[in-house]
User: What shape does this take?
Amino acid sequence: MAPDYRIAGLGDRAVDYLAAWDLQRDVHAAVVDGAPDTVLLLEHPPVFTCGKRTDEHEKPLDPGGAPVIDVDRGGKITFHGPGQLVGYPIVTLPDHVKVVDYVRRVEEALIRVCADLGVTTARVPGRSGVWLQADDRGPERKIAALGIRVSRGVTMHGFALNCDVDLGWYDRFVPCGIADAGVTTLSAELGRDVTVEEVLPLVEQHLSAYLAWGPYDATPDYEPRPEPGRIRLVTPAGA
Assistant: This one.
């Protein structure tokens, strides 16, 4: 059965990160108690969130007025803001689905969303998220970030897909601690405005397919990359 989708707040009704975190916890508790799986879809006002692997020196020295919040998900520091579709799938993992498989399913759904819009992406083994290969337009670059937590067999946190977010925010830190790659958006890659509202139905369609937990053919990976470095080297593509 497909999860329920709840639009928690978009545009002028973007949801404060801490309020969304409280909402996640409430929904998580309900799902643990037997409520239907739920995916929260929303935008946040500008905010930097720091996963459990974030080193203190990786936080922005000048966050531009955006809060910097330590969170209980995996991974490192990332940015959320207007023009970025954030999804928090709060779903019960079946016994045959391990955490890594769940992450790959969410990545695959986002890869398919990008493909529907005309952007070719894949995974980079060793680095979570969804990526474009290096080309004459820029270095290898991330278009969607993932960071999750699983508690009592139910997922929390999730993904952020860059639609038309202001890439200038990424100049303030090294996204996910990866210094040798860039960040991009659907709008930058397609040369037109791609809004969160345009992407929403595609995300719901593909997430529903992969969270039905059936077998699927995975998109071939790009070349593996090592653990990220610590030195900032690259200005994001499209910035």
